[in-house]
Amino acid sequence: MKFERLGDIAELIAGQSPPSSTYNQERNGVPFFQGKADYGKKFPTVRFWCSEPTKISLPDDILISMRAPVGPVNINNVESCIGRGLSAIRVKGNANRDYIFYWLKLNEKQIADKGTGSVFKAITQKTLSELKIPLPSFSDQIQIANILSKAETLIEQRKQSIALLDELLKSSFLEMFGDPVRNEKGWNKIKFKEAAKNENSKRIPVKQGDRDNRAGIYPYYGATGIIDTIDDFKFDGEYLLIAEDGKNLLFRKKNNAFMARGKFWVNNHAHVLSDNRICNLRYLEFFLNSIDFKPFITGIDQVKLNKENLDKIPVPKPPIELQTQFAHLVEKTEALKEQYKNSLQELENLYGSLSQRAFKGVLELKTTVTACV
User: Fold this and answer.
1) Is residue 164 within 8 Å of 156, Cβ to Cβ?
2) DSSP string covering 161-205, please?
């Protein structure tokens, strides 16, 4: 397979920032893209316009970030002005745009490594133009781009399926129990200390030898992640975990609370709760993730959800049978979600393998095209 300089198979248009006085959000002029902050998954999103554009990028140009960070790409879908943080790559007739786009995407790290600068990394137009790109026949380029596009579509569909399952559980919770703050269904309320058992007294200290190897054996949870402390404790079973800062637990960045199963460690910045047969832990998990913790958190620089305030949180108490029904739905949905996640991982591995083989010229195109259809 022959290699060609990017500068020989594409016109490279360096971005140039127009006067700041010409930036606006009133749709005056043409869309203005400044850098990676304007990127979407594949196409940029317009946030600003420019009334006096300097450098113009056309639809179908590849946009590449030239500085802070170096390397990320998008495909332009609108005539626009580009600032100095971007360059436009306008592919010529002997090269396929999507093929070049996927090559740049696969090699983002290698391109970033070519950046220079002490404050922030940047690459020059000369460095960009000298990138050597493997260039098979035009028909093979099209086939490779189509294969990778189909693989990306499958990956995106799987991600959407996982997201839809999460939305299904949230909507099912609201349908079965109503909004927990407004409590439209009029459930009786109890204090959180009545809804679950606080298991802090059952904390089993972790031995030094176990602690040294913990990251590779069992999950570790706490307010800020793995830290070097003697206050590490081991649990074995099913528990509801709540971060002491009322915000995040490691591995579940969006949730205030989540379920942990099997053997795991926590530090002293996590509340560990178990079932007391009054409220189902799955119900409590979704309840806690649908309320605002702020009224129960103390401190400014170091916020804290202490046990006293956690115990005060009012919890609507629907019939335990209804809570159990919801818990069964959660279990089935999460089992399906786990299958989807495994499938997603396989698809992402396949995509990586296809990309590597395609750009090395060792991909059996006809066989792969048939398999991906």
Assistant:
1) no
2) HHHHHHHHHHHHHHHHH--TTT-TT---EEEHHHHEEE-GGG-EE
Q: Considering the domain 2-135, what is its CATH architecture? A: Alpha-Beta Complex (3.90)
* 297 band by pLDDT with thresholds 50, 70 and 90: confident
Scored b (16 or more CB within 10 A) or e, 15-43 reads bebbeeebbeeeeebbbbbbbbebbeeee
Distance of CA 42 to the CA centre of its chain: 15
Q: Which long-range contacts (CB under 8 A, 24 or more apart) does 137-143 make?
A: 138/94, 138/95, 138/96, 140/365, 141/95, 141/96, 141/99, 142/96, 142/98, 142/99, 143/365, 143/369
Token reading at 151? 């693989």
The whole-chain average pLDDT of the chain stands at: 87
How far is residue 118 from each of residues 68, 115, 122, measured CA to CA in Å? 11, 10, 10
Q: What is the pTM of this model?
A: 0.75
- Range 82-100 burial, b when 16+ CB lie within 10 A, else e: bbbbbbbbebeeebbbbbb
Q: 209 Cβ partners below 8 Å, 6+ apart?
A: none
Given this chain, do its domains 2-135 and 188-317 carry the same CATH topology?
A: yes
Domain extent listing, the chain? 2-135, 188-317
Give the whole-angstrom CA distance, residue 262 versus residue 202. 15
Query: What is the rounded CA–CA span in Å between residue 59 and residue 76?
Result: 5
Angle of helix 320-360 versus helix 138-177 axis, rounded to 10: 170
**Selected residue with higher pLDDT from 1 and 360:** 360
367, amino acid identity: T
For the 188-317 domain, the top CATH level (class) is: alpha beta
pLDDT band at 250 (very low <50, low <70, confident <90, very high): very low
- What Å distances lie between residue 109 and 65, 182, 217, 346, CA to CA? 12, 49, 30, 22
Beta carbons of 232 and 269 less than 8 angstroms apart = no
Strand 257-267 and strand 220-221: pairing?
A: parallel
